[in-house]
Specification:
Number of strands: 23
Bound molecules: flavin mononucleotide
CATH architecture of the largest domain: Roll
CATH superfamily of the largest domain: Electron Transport, Fmn-binding Protein, Chain A
Distance between the termini: 48 Å
Helix content: 25-40%
Structural class: alpha+beta
């Protein structure tokens, strides 16, 4: 395993396009009328779709956009591996590799070579309509991008990266959905001091940069350092066009919209095709005012195929954070399943149990790692956490509901969970589907291995009926 190394999205694509099976669409495409996602929907299979680069896109002014756009960067497991420099298409290998890769934090390096500022548009020329804003799924409430927001904590030098849905409002304004996590806290700190929060919306960089943004990182860790770890080399940064050294931006990005989250203003935003595979609700969201658009020659926007496999798999670094949290609490944890075998709010944990309380400890660690998981199923290590049928076998045969189903109340909810309204509290459960320590386990119904060796198939003539 070697971490990813290539500074730009273009370099990365050139290196990996054969391995990922990149498709390029040269025909003119208008992503604002679902044209891009209609093509992606026809290429989607249960195991995801190929990466697709749209080379000729219409913008909101009806002209050709300066930007191309890449979808399905994470749709196939193999592509997620390539984003991280891990040669595998096994989900568990990726989850095991990620903590080692993320531990190699790298301090950013300031550079005078700033491809992303090859073109800088600001002042009266600034117009967000030059971009190929996208409608992904039916009934989306507007035109969207899913960029990475880079922001510096007020009064500190620490940077946070966060992946956010952003909708077009007018030539210099956009609406941003922010969950109550770190970026939210930065914005509130600035707002309480009466200030706007400077942010850089990064529309395209090396695919590992986006995965660093999604990771659940402790607040004291600078996420520019995490980006360096996942990209396999220090993030190159430079002063922003609008804020100078007060906001350092990734120099190797494809395109950046610099601007501010405006204090004491909110705007209507949503619905949007969410990772729950439902439309996330319309709500009052944060107002972004643009100050500059900067981009490299022929930039590529890295966009997510919202509500589809690409979007779900992009949560791989959050998934790895859940595994790490469970293992810190209970070292006997072997695997954690989430979208594969679980669901958007449900995780499955496997452990090699040595004490009866371990399932509950492991479940609580995952429930406390963030507000994403409300339901945890704990199984023994012989169960495949990535296979829902295997998990159901354990629930069906090892659970006594009166003792093994523990109901939880008063959990912080997720706005995107359609089973309850708003950011209010929700409920959850832990199902302990493990055998009790010392319990006699019934033998599994299987043909003896000795018999299979004794009577090999090739000793028989098998006639097709
Ligand atoms: C594709 C994708 C889209 C996301 N969109 C949003 C979003 O719109 N708003 C949000 O708050 N978090 C979103 N997230 C989750 C955050 O990126 C993630 O929880 C991150 O760690 C939150 O950042 P913070 O804790 O650094 O503020 C998204 C994650 C992924 C993978």
């Amino acid at each position: 395993m070697s971490p990813a190394t290539a500074s730009s999205l273009g370099d990365w694509l050139e290196k990996h396009s054969t391995a990922t099976g990149l498709l390029t669409v040269e025909d003119p495409v208008d992503p604002g009328v679902y044209e891009a996602t209609a093509i992606l929907a026809q290429l989607e299979t249960p195991s995801g779709g190929p990466p697709v680069l749209f080379a000729n896109l219409r913008n909101l002014s009806g002209e050709r956009s300066p930007a191309r756009m890449l979808f399905n960067t994470y749709s196939k497991r193999r592509s997620v591996g390539l984003a991280l420099g891990v040669e595998t298409d096994t989900w568990n290998d990726l989850l095991e590799a990620l903590p080692q890769i993320s531990a190699n934090l790298q301090k950013p390096i300031e550079t005078a070579d700033v491809p992303v500022q090859d073109t800088v548009i600001q002042g009266d020329d600034l117009d967000l309509r030059i971009l190929p804003w996208t409608r992904h799924v039916e009934m989306e409430g507007g035109l969207y991008f899913t960029p990475i927001l880079a922001a510096k904590q007020p009064g500190s030098d620490r940077y946070n990266l966060s992946w956010n849905r952003v909708t077009y409002l007018d030539p210099i304004h956009a609406g941003v959905h922010i969950s109550p996590r770190q970026l939210w806290s930065f914005q509130r700190e600035a707002e309480q001091a009466g200030d706007d929060l400077p942010v850089a919306m990064v529309l395209g960089h090396h695919p590992a940069f986006n995965l660093a943004a999604a990771a659940l990182t402790a607040i004291q860790i600078d996420e520019y350092h995490v980006a360096g770890a996942l990209m396999g080399e220090p993030l190159q940064v430079a002063p922003s066009a609008r804020f100078g050294e007060d906001l350092m931006v990734p120099a190797g990005a494809e395109m950046i919209i610099e601007g501010r989250l405006i204090a004491a203003h909110r705007v209507v935003e949503g619905p949007f095709g969410e990772y729950m595979r439902y439309l996330g609700p319309q709500k009052l969201s944060h107002l972004f005012e643009a100050d500059a658009i900067t981009f490299r020659p022929e930039p590529i926007i890295l966009e997510i195929f919202a509500g589809h496999r690409d979007h779900l798999n992009a949560h791989v670094s959050i998934h790895a954070s859940l595994l790490a949290a469970a293992r810190t609490a209970v070292p006997q944890v072997t695997r954690v399943g989430w979208f594969q075998g679980g669901g958007p709010t449900t995780a499955v944990v496997a452990l090699d149990k040595s004490a009866d309380g371990q399932p509950m400890r492991a479940a609580m660690a995952i429930l406390s790692a963030g507000n994403l998981i409300k339901q945890v199923i704990v199984v023994d290590d012989d169960i495949d956490v990535f296979d829902a049928q295997s998990v159901m076998w354990a629930i069906s045969t090892r659970v006594r509901a009166d003792e093994d189903v523990i109901m939880l109340k008063g959990l912080q909810g997720s706005l995107l969970d359609p089973s309850h309204p708003g950011f209010g509290t929700t409920a959850g459960f832990v199902i302990d589907a493990t055998w009790r320590v010392g319990q006699t386990r019934p033998p599994v119904a299987r043909v003896p291995e000795a018999a299979v060796s004794q009577f090999p198939l090739d000793a028989y003539t098998l006639k097709e009926a």
